[in-house]
Amino acid sequence: MTIDSRTSRAPTLEMVAAEAGVSRATVSRVVNGSPKVTAEVTAIVNDAIARLNYVPNRVARSLASRRTDVIALIVPESTSTVFADPFFAPVVRGVARALSDTDYTLNLLIASEARPQKTRRYLLGGNVDGALVVSHHAEDHSYVGLGSTLPIVFGGRPINPETFDSYFVDVDNVHSARTATEHLIGLGRRHVATIAGRQDMPAGIDRLNGWRESIDAAGGDPALIEIGDFSQSSGADAMNRLLDRGVPIDGVFVANDQMAAGAVQVLRTRGLSVPGDVAVVGYDDDTFASTLTPPLTTMHQPSADLGATMAELLVRLIAGEEVPRRTIIPTHLIVRGSA
Amino acid sequence: MTIDSRTSRAPTLEMVAAEAGVSRATVSRVVNGSPKVTAEVTAIVNDAIARLNYVPNRVARSLASRRTDVIALIVPESTSTVFADPFFAPVVRGVARALSDTDYTLNLLIASEARPQKTRRYLLGGNVDGALVVSHHAEDHSYVGLGSTLPIVFGGRPINPETFDSYFVDVDNVHSARTATEHLIGLGRRHVATIAGRQDMPAGIDRLNGWRESIDAAGGDPALIEIGDFSQSSGADAMNRLLDRGVPIDGVFVANDQMAAGAVQVLRTRGLSVPGDVAVVGYDDDTFASTLTPPLTTMHQPSADLGATMAELLVRLIAGEEVPRRTIIPTHLIVRGSA
DNA sequence: TTGAAAGCGCTAACAA
DNA sequence: TTGTTAGCGCTTTCAA
């Protein structure tokens, strides 16, 4: 057997077969760990593989077998800001962890927003067995349509879950907000306000609704609402507006930790003690939450679990199993110093 | 031609050819934008494509053409901490930006450290045309070996650049450290110390060497060195050790901003003014550098440019062009309040 | 248990 | 300009 050294290319399965003196089918079986190959033959083949330094061509394999063993996690390019997003990193870690036990390779697909077709074609072109979409923001749902062609699991509630029969996993924002608010009420606070987040995102809407439910149930004032945009400064502004109303307030549920940080700052600036005068509960359990003064009591998002759950569901979906379309991950309250 | 609806699969190029009444080759030409196809025929084919909702199978394409139009950026799984790493995000953004103009799709490959073979096989299995490796840490060089099989561009100086004829782009740490140190000297400081980083990383070694060169040239004291591990607390410790020596010090070049933050804190705690008593220059221009008190004077790393440059080089390498094995990105000093 | 042979869907000479 | 014809490297029935 001669190899043209000028164009020497990666060894193929066929070369291994020749080297081992068996058929290509047998080599294929050995490579894929088929049980019905003599230990003897297996050894011979493995020897040949080692000698030739053979690495299977996955592309050819994919074409023939219609599987890739690759799962994509789609990252909107703009969200490269995503790297700064304290929510995203743990999700990725959870996905990676869940997948490391499997034969799947994880693929963060940076979706160029300027050329969405590039991503679409990659996804639909047989490069992956399934995809994960973390849609932190409402608009990221350009991928819902692919759901009928490619197994996809979404993270975060889709805007219209009924419209599309997509699979998704999310935390129960409504219930979490209730837990937070009820903690405040349980502390004896009678005038519990809320600083809500953007009302065009599920997280913003649902958390406000949770607060509302608790307040209604407890007979509190349902008008103590100010809306922010999830940024720290918007939280500060909202807190100021709340205080400027001149009505008593002794507790605030804030829809995320960033805004909570702003609110606490305002409170202290205006001479109110936290939690003495006003107790504050945040949401997200961001990394900085424990370093604030006082340390922030907040709702912990099990982001890594969310990622892991998404990955597990997708793997089962690919395997053709029946899986629930809607999976809810529990959250829990972390009591620190602010409430 | 009949399609079994139970097993209805994605339309193939062959189906498009039949629908349009042309050969598969012609369809292929249209899909790939070949110039030598009649406008008329092109229109007919495109119609058929639209009617059938045809999306080319990239895997088959890859197998036949030996190209994938995919570039991988390898991310060590542990480095999922990477997402918190202020250096990594801009690099990724730079890569993404450079690639968005091309036909390449960017693929962040999360390399499972528990099963390194998975990544290796993916890379060597024909899934990508080339790879980018950002080796922040010395150990990440398990991929150097692949360089002979797959075009690879490294970010950051390899440990033994002479040993492996790999391609890499890096900032000139030695020169940058000189710039920083000379700024201090230019300010009239006569006793300029340094807090160096880990001496098992190129960044740590080179920055120390740069300081040394400047000090030697200026006739300063070459013994004013303390080593940290790039963490803030290690910077504080190092500063304390420096001050405890009891010798005069009126300037410090610190090998990264994290350590610089720790050093400044210690300085102020011990009643020394910055930059009055001791001027401090950091390195990295981390996002928080401008928010310190006083705002930190530091060396700016053009991380996005580094990423973009890496991507451009790789693309040219894949195209078979000659490219330099060593590319150095310039840095620049940002003068703020600390020196 | 092993081998032979027919594709997987596409590209790329080479002809026409 | 368009079509014909071999493959790309592997998997997978089906026989042996």
TrEMBL record, chains A, B:
Residues 11-65 form the HTH lacI-type domain. Coiled coil: none annotated. SMART domains: HTH_LACI. Gene3D superfamilies: 3.40.50.2300, lambda repressor-like DNA-binding domains. The keyword Chloroplast does not apply. The keyword Glycosyltransferase does not apply. It comes from the Bacteria. InterPro entries: HTH_LacI (IPR000843), LacI/GalR-like_sensor (IPR046335), Lambda_DNA-bd_dom_sf (IPR010982), Peripla_BP_I (IPR028082). Keywords: DNA-binding, Transcription, Transcription regulation. It holds the Pfam family Peripla_BP_3. This is LacI family transcriptional regulator. It comes from Herbiconiux daphne.
